[in-house]
Amino acid sequence: MASEILPVIFLSLIVSFTSTFIASVIGISAAVPFSIKNFKLKKYILRINEVLMSMPPVLMGLIVYVVLSKEGSLGNYNLLFTPFAMIIAQTLLVMPIVFTLTVSSLSKVSVEIMKNCKVLGAGRFEIFISIINECRMQILSIITTGFGRAISEVGAVMMVGGNIKGHTRVMTTFIAFETGKGNFREAFIIGGILLFISLIVNTLIHCFKGEAE
Amino acid sequence: MSVRICNIQKTYNSKRVLDIENYHFKENYIYVIRGKNGEGKSTLLNIIAGIEKPDYGEVLYDFKTDCLRYDISMMLQKPYLFNTTVYENIIMGLKYRKINKNEIDKRLKRYCSYFKMGELMNKNAKKLSGGESQRVALLRSAILESKLMLLDEPTSSMDYENTLMAEKLILDMKNKGSTIIMVTHDMSQAKRIGDKIILLEDGRINYD
Ligand SMILES: Nc1ncnc2c1ncn2[C@@H]1O[C@H](COP(=O)(O)OP(=O)(O)OP(=O)(O)O)[C@@H](O)[C@H]1O
Ligand SMILES: [Mg+2]
After folding, report:
1. What gap in Å lies between CA B6 and CA B3, rounded to an integer?
2. How do residues B59-113 score in pLDDT, each as one tens digit?
3. Are B145 and B180 in contact (CB under 8 A)?
């Protein structure tokens, strides 16, 4: 039992951490300057991201599937049904969440921080770092939200990963699969572990916040 | 550093806030700007500091359109203090300038002596009172010893003793060679330290 479950948990964590990490780095790096600048297309870019934020994972799965399949533009790399494909799909799902939430939670305060940094002689990079540093708590919560979306998501990883035992099977696809076979006990165990991981992540964040107070 | 304002116009929501044809702030003077609420004093300072753009016109620093960002420092009307200790807040701009530890200590000693900062230094800057915050904001700007210092109501929440010390600090900055442009609603303060007192009215600069 354990030898079957452990790789599933491990892969889940790897895929979700990696995709949350990539999505956060890109999403936050884009969101911080975006929250300061004012330009014509700003409203539309935000609107598009809000839509992408609530995109059904199966649709994202479908798109990534098509791009990675033999006929798709990245077909030559044979990425379909690998953990890489799952990371790509989840990164694309999490990125708009991180971006939109960061922009909306920083929009007021980031301009204020930028002005105060600037009049003390800060350069662009120093301003960027200051904003992230000042808003670290909000950003941490946003990353947690993104991670929650990644690790609990089933549609996209099922489609582009294929739920192959020992290769691309993660916790959520495991639950779906075992439930389908009528193995409720295994499904519940993994479900419990999934909840437990959320609990750990949330507790860590709260400890961190408490320390920062 | 001297500052020349050329044909600056600024409009917010179709309300003309600033419309200044020409004005020259001479080097090494203390200018005090007065005016009613909402007359555009902060807007003018922000434009000189470069954190707001005028709709039209330009600002010349020593007759040039641009200057080193290290040459200007400003204390905003509602300063944002960083979520860290008072000490870190005060030396923030020195860090941006990559100034060494020795010099940082020297300047801290020199400038913190104006106000009783002792117990405050290790406190979180977010937990300060209004007057304490203003002291920190004034210090972190003054400690940079920049050529041009812009102060937007620097003593509006300070008590009388601290206000006098702040004025002494500002006068000392002038003696060190800085040009100072400040806003205040305190007429007696303006008379105490201002070399030139300016009235901002209907978006224009008038002398009192
Ligand atoms: N970002 C903004 N958007 C819209 N209106 C603004 C903005 N900033 C300032 N204003 C308006 O411009 C006018 C001038 O504002 P400013 O802050 O320069 O006034 P002030 O002279 O500094 O007033 P106070 O004495 O109250 O500090 C005000 O009517 C204000 O409402
Ligand atoms: Mg003002």
Report:
1. 10
2. 999 988 888 889 999 999 999 999 999 999 999 999 999 999 999 999 999 999 9
3. no
Asked if A121 and B74 come within 8 Å (Cβ–Cβ), the reply is no
- A2-212: CATH superfamily: MetI-like (1.10.3720.10)
Atom of ligand 1 nearest to the CA of B200: 21
Instruction: Look at residue B207 and tell me whether its pLDDT is greater than 80.
Output: no
Q: How far is B93 from chain A (nearest CA, A)?
A: 5
Q: Report how many domains make up chain B.
A: 1
Predicted local confidence at residue A206, as pLDDT: 86
d(CA A106, CA A101): 8
CA distance A120 to chain B (A): 5
- Give the domain ranges of chain A: 2-212
Residues spanned by the domain of B12: 3-207
For residue A102, pLDDT beyond 90: yes
What does pTM read for this prediction?
0.91
CA distances from B101 to A147, B93, B98 (A): 41, 13, 9
Q: Identify the CATH number of the domain in which residue B150 sits.
A: 3.40.50.300
Q: Does A123 touch chain B (CB under 8 A)?
A: yes
A183: its two tokens: 């193995």
Does the structure's ipTM exceed the value 0.85?
Answer: yes
User: Is the model's pLDDT at A189 over the cut of 70?
Assistant: yes
Contact predicate A140/A154, CB 8 Å: no
Residues with CB under 5 A from ligand 2 (ion): B 41-42, 77
